Amino acid sequence: MSEPTRPTSVFPRTEALTTAMPAKPGERAVRRRPKPGLLIGGSIVALFVLVALAAPLIAPHGPNDQDVLNILASPSPAHWLGTDELGRDVLSRLIFAARVDLGIGLLGALLPAVAGTALGAIAGYFGGWADALIMRLSDVVQAFPSYILIIALVFVFGQGPVSILISFTLVSWVAYARLVRTEVLRVREQDFVQAARVAGLGDRRVLWGHVLPNSLQQAVLYLPADIIGATLGLAALSFLGLGVEPPTAEWGAMIAQGKPYLREQWWLATVPGLAVFVFGVGLSLAAEGLNSRRTR
Questions:
Q1: How confident is the model at residue 20 (pLDDT cuts 50, 70, 90)?
Q2: Mean pLDDT of 106-132
Q3: Coiled-coil stretches, from where to where (predicted)?
Q4: Helix, strand, or coil here: 66?
């Protein structure tokens, strides 16, 4: 008696894994060769992340330790980047500020991404009144300039990281919702989605288990750019005095504190500004490299 035939899956995601032909050795080597921009950008971002994680170990002083005998001191072996107007070590504050900026920058992009992805998936899959309500709400948010709306929300919720994250989430979810909605509208008409419905799966399992995982590419590619935007937004708010509260070390606040001393102690504002710039360039290079690999 012959063995029973093994049933094949009706979903192309699993079927593709079993039927895909391996690439030629030469082609595989070309595909896996990383882009220079991806290597450089990824290295820069990894360096900033390591510095932020190891801040207590590598910072020569505490971020708020004061040396009252060396106020506004020039760079020296004791203080490699000098001291600020309160005698605090600039290098130590720069290192500890990476924890604040990278943490809020990452969460300031992830939280809107989660909220926008969920709302966009619901709008695109179910349509009808849910789609109309979510899209009209996004139109209202987009009717205001982003930074003006964020500043207004920070005024309403108060100063601090929590209010900043809430403000970023309430403003930045729109981009993810629109990206995911567009992809869901395309994916929900695919054959494997129809097969899932015929197999008796409910809308919840079809949406979150099959439609959404195939609709996240554009949102994932947009995420690094949004992290840059959230980091720059935090620096801008802190520069205006609306970011994290003193004496917490933060790059934007350090730029604002060093602005009155640009002629004599130019490094007080320039070095944290360079930190923001280099981190943004690293993320941009990494995002561009990921995008080029994804589209090849």
A1: very low
A2: 95
A3: none
A4: strand
What pLDDT sits at residue 86? 93
Scored b (16 or more CB within 10 A) or e, 232-254 reads: bbbbbbbbeebbbeeebbbbbbb
Which residue is associated with the tokens 């909605």?
181
Look-up of token digits 């008409």: 189
Q: What is the pLDDT of residue 295?
A: 58
Beta bridge partners of 83: 89
Q: Alpha helices, DSSP H only, in the chain? A: 12-19, 25-32, 36-53, 55-58, 90-126, 128-142, 146-157, 161-187, 191-198, 203-206, 217-239, 251-258, 267-295
Q: Are 281 and 41 in contact (CB under 8 A)?
A: yes
Q: Return the DSSP state at 261.
A: G
Q: What are phi and psi of 144, to 5 degrees?
A: -105, 145
What CATH number is given for 51-295 in this structure?
1.10.3720.10
* CB-based contact 244:161 (threshold 8 Å): yes
pLDDT over 80 (residue 292)? no
Q: Find where tokens 């935090």 sit.
A: 234
Copy the structure tokens of residue 206.
């079809």
| pLDDT 10s digits, 79-116 | 999 999 999 999 999 999 999 999 999 999 999 999 99
Closest CA to 169 of 120, 230, 231: 230
**Where exactly are the structural domains of the chain?**
51-295
